[in-house]
Structure formats: structure tokens, C-alpha cells
Amino acid sequence: MSGMFRLSHIDADANEWIVDYSFVNDFVCDYPSFIKQATSTVNIQATTECEVYLLSLNHVCRDIPTLIRLLLR
Number of C-alpha atoms within 13 angstroms, CB side, residue 26? Predict the structure, then answer.
């Protein structure tokens, strides 16, 4: 809901690559791992003080209309 995040990936040679940034009201996650319920390949780090909502896959699937309204606020 507020704050900024940096998303990065560390390759096999231990190099860190910034792959994205997330800003106020953005939906932030490692989407492929979230959907597959697999280990994340992306590090998500808050770069400012943040207010976030934690959602489970079950919650998202059950409450899609509510989630869409929340994301479009």
C-alpha cells in the first residue's frame, strides 16, 4: 500500500541483478513461484518503510473480486 521495493535475482556466479522496482499501490511478488507454490527466484527487499498486505494463494483465488478492487484503489 505504501513504500518502495527492489526485486533482484542472484545468478549462478553470485552476481545480483535488479529486475524490477515496485512503488506505492503496486502488486509485488514473484508471480511464477506464487502460482506454482515453488521456491522464489526473486529477492524482494523493502527500500523504504512500507505498509503491505500478505495474501495467500487460497485467499487470492477465493476473493478475486475483492483483490481487484483493492489493487485498483
Answer: 16
Q: How many CA atoms lie within 13 A of 60 on its CB side?
A: 11
In this structure, what C-alpha cell is assigned to residue 31? 508471480
Cell readout for 17 is 541483478
All cell numbers assigned to 15: 552476481
Global pTM reads 0.68
pLDDT score for 48: 95
Per-residue pLDDT tens for 5-62?
999 999 999 999 999 999 988 888 887 887 787 888 899 999 999 988 887 777 777 7
Q: Assign residue 14 a region: left if phi > 0, alpha if psi is -120 to 50, beta otherwise?
A: left
Burial of 48 per CB tally in 10 Å (0-12, 13-18, 19+): exposed
